[in-house]
Structure formats: structure tokens, C-alpha cells
Amino acid sequence: MFGGVNRALREAKAWMTGSLLVAALVIPGVANAQDVRLPVSASFSILGDLVRAVGGDRIDLTTLVGPDQDAHVYEPTPADIGKLTATKVFFINGLGFEGWMPRLRKASHYTGRVVEVTEGLKPRTTRDQGKLVTDPHMFQDPALAKAMVTRIRDALTEADPAGKTYYAERAKNYELALDDLITWARKQLAPISPTRRVVLTSHDAFGYLGERFDIRFLAPEGVSTESEASARDVAKLIRVIRTTGVKAVFMENITNPRLIERIAHDAKVQVDGKLYSDALSQNQEASTYLQLFQHNIRAIAAAMKDDR
Ligand SMILES: [Zn+2]
């Protein structure tokens, strides 16, 4: 597996030496080490952003499931498989988040290294249609995102040892940014009383965020958007909304808003807007993970306030 990476790096270095010579003859000083970027891929946009945060200019990143797209129900295209095959390291979330991964691996005969960024981290479990299931949405907790960044740093360093210091420095800076974000989020949420800390969204994507910041998230759909909410679950949820008096109700950028709109209508509550769950946004509101997190915290803090 690494033989392939090392060979590619050797070839890349040989090519770079060649291009430096050409550059020296033609346009002196233009070529540099960044001409030879490590080709890597990520399964979905949020993970892609974390990989870019660490890899910076040393990587050439391909992301399969783009902004505002649902990674649970994605279907790999032949073009995606072609792009993936050309990369040396493939970062995935794991924990069943990418339900299509077995099919993709079979179709692509991928020979690079597959890095599961949640490997070794303890996942939370939750009830989904009566069964105990693993929640794959670890990336919604910035403290766990830090651990993912460490894994990304290590995998990039292994594939591209010359970039060790570069990756280490970028990972460190990003982890500090995540620490600042956690402190900021605690301040935003501090004034909200325990009884108001309930939020309704489409699918069960915010369990880790809820555990980190003491917020209870309700959702008609389970940990994957693949299964539809049953009429019984929806009726039960409407009763819960009425009895708990939940005020914070949100759509998600990756799911159809109709179910939430119907529930809000039946429970006589207002929809507060949109949360970014399993993907970044195409607009500027959540085009990076740091922005996504800030948007979500700001939105839920405003919706849960006592004086609404
Ligand atoms: Zn999800």
C-alpha cells in the first residue's frame, strides 16, 4: 500500500526536479515544492474542510459529496470513482456514515490508503426505531473534531514525510481555533436555562453536539436519512413538542424541509431556520467547518432564549 505512495512521491520528486530545471531555463524562480501536491480525497464536504485545514498547499484535494448534499444517500458516479482512484489517501468518517462505502470500494478497486478519522474514538449510541445504533456524526462535536485533525495530520505526514513540520503547525493552529470556538460556544449558551435546552431537527445528527453542550435534540428521523420517519414516530414527536414546549425548531441543509414544516404546523410552533448538519453550505454562511459551527450555535442559542 505504502509502496504505491512512496513510488508516486519518488516519481513526483523526479518530475519536480525536471520541472525545476525547465523553470530555471524558462521562467526562473516560478516553480517550487508546492507544484507537487499530494493527491488526497475526502468522502464529504465537512471532512474535506478539516483535511484542507491541515494539508493546505501541500495537498490536492478531491471531495466526493459536496456542499448541501446528503452523504447518507449519495451514489458514487463513474466520474467520482475516476477522481478517487487518482488519490493516494482517502479520508472517510466511518461508523457507517458513508453507507455506500462498500459499494464504492468494490467498484473502484482503490489501492491507496483509507483513513477512518473516527477510528479509536468512542462513539455514542442511540435508539433508532427501537434498536440501539451507533451515531456516526462525531464531527458535530468540535472537541472530537480535534481528535480527527490529529489523525489527518498523522496520515498526511506518513504519506508525505517532507511535510511533517508544515502539517504539525497547521494542525496545531486549527486545534487552537477549535478550542476558541468551544469557549465561545459555552459563553453563547450559558444564559439558557436547562428547561429551554431542547431543539427539534429533521434527523438525529446533533447528538454529539448535544452531549458536549447540554442540549437535547429531538428528530423524527434516525441517525441516517435513509430511513423515513414513521407516522407513529411523527405523532409521538408532536406530543413531545406540545408537552415539553420546545421552541427551537430547525430544518437542515441536506434534507427536505417538508416533514419539519408539517410537524411544526401540527404542533403549532414556528420553524426558526436552517441548521447545517452533514454538509457545508454552497453559500458563505457555512462554507467552512468553523463557520458551520458558529452558525449552528448562534441559531440554536437565539431560538432557545428564555424571552421568546
Ligand atoms: Zn446524518
UniProtKB/TrEMBL annotation:
Its main location: other. The keyword Cell inner membrane does not apply. One of its GO terms (cellular component) is cell envelope. GO terms for biological process: cell adhesion; metal ion transport. Keywords: Lipoprotein, Metal-binding, Signal, Transport. It is found in: Cell envelope. GO terms for molecular function: metal ion binding. Belongs to the bacterial solute-binding protein 9 family. This is Manganese-binding lipoprotein MntA. The gene is mntA.
